[in-house]
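Subject: for your reference before the review

Hello V.,

The reviewers asked for a structural picture of the protein, and I figured it would be easier to keep everything in one thread rather than splitting it across files. Below is the amino acid sequence we used in the manuscript, unchanged from the supplementary table.
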Amino acid sequence: MKQKPGEADFHQNSGRGSDDEVIAEALQLLADFDNTPLLDMTPLFYQHGYEELRMITRDLLRILGHDPDAQNPR
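And here is what came back from the structure prediction:
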């Protein structure tokens, strides 16, 4: 499948938006973690945070050209 000019910048990743949107989402997630008050860091916070981090990491790996589902990552 041939890409149109500029299409590489708008590559879709797992239904989460363009590469730029995924990167912006990852940056926002980190900022949200950094700005969470200590009293809000409950077990539910960590469970939800882990799932969010896992999903965004998989999307970032796809952007970098890696298959997060591959058996042998090397």
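For the response letter, the relevant points are probably these. The first helix runs from residue 19 to 34. Confidence is low (pLDDT under 50) at residues 1-14.

Happy to draft the paragraph if you're swamped.

O.
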